[in-house]
Amino acid sequence: MKTALGILTAATLLAGCSGTEPGPLRITMSLDKPAVAMDDSLRIVLRVVNASAQPVMVYPSSAYGPCMYSGFELFDREWRPAHEGYVCLGTTTFIVFMPEPVALNPGETMEITRWWRPEHTFVEGQPIEPGLYYIPGAAAAVDRTFQTPPREIFVG
């Protein structure tokens, strides 16, 4: 699942379609706290707004989860990617069960809520250590991904 998302994200980035400006969608991210204990969870809320005059096809909030679009990325202090350690079925499941895109009309907002548990997160195959991490939010339209600037979160 993560592999399929990684391939999709890489292809989108290579096509020059990633980012927030300029583009029809605006994305913001809020975190429920600036620090999280290793055995606690962090609530991440993304708000995607269609700032254009035309509908934009996006993946609905039900398409976000540990085995679909993640809604955020994680990096350690050295900007090494961190991954949630969930066991997901193969990419065939991703293709079969992925929700259909929906139209986000001009001025409409879609909210995506995710939870991150540091104890389920790994960097280079090892459980993460306490310290500073970076979280950029990410949402997917049919033809591109949109990201927030990274936010710092301390894991203790």
Strand order of the largest sheet: 2-14-11-5-6-9-10
The ordered string of helix (H) and strand (E) elements is: HEEEEEEHEEEEEEEE
By secondary-structure content and strand pairing, the structural class works out as mainly beta
Largest sheet: 7 strands, mixed
Termini separation: 29 Å
Beta-strand content: 35-45%
Radius of gyration: 15 Å
Number of helices: 2
Report the uncertain regions: 1-19
Shape: globular
Count of DSSP strands: 14
Commentary on this structure:
With 156 residues, the chain is mainly beta. It contains 2 helices and 14 strands, in the order H-E-E-E-E-E-E-H-E-E-E-E-E-E-E-E. It has a 7-stranded mixed β-sheet, with no helix packed on it. The protein has a 3-stranded antiparallel β-sheet with strand order 1-3-8, with no helix packed on it. It has a two-stranded antiparallel sheet with strand order 4-7. The longest helix is centred in the first third of the chain and has 13 residues. It is globular, with a radius of gyration of 15 Å.
Short description:
With 156 residues, the chain is mainly beta. It has two helices and 14 strands.
Keywords:
156 residues, globular, three-stranded antiparallel beta sheet, mainly beta, 2 helices, 14 strands, seven-stranded mixed beta sheet, disordered N terminus
Per-chain topology:
Layout: H1 2-14, E1 25-31, E2 35-36, E3 42-50, E4 56-58, E5 74-76, E6 81-84, H2 91-97, E7 102-104, E8 109-116, E9 121-123, E10 126-127, E11 131-135, E12 138-140, E13 145-147, E14 151-155
Parallel strand pairs: 2-14
Antiparallel strand pairs: 1-3, 3-8, 4-7, 5-6, 5-11, 6-9, 9-10, 11-14, 12-13
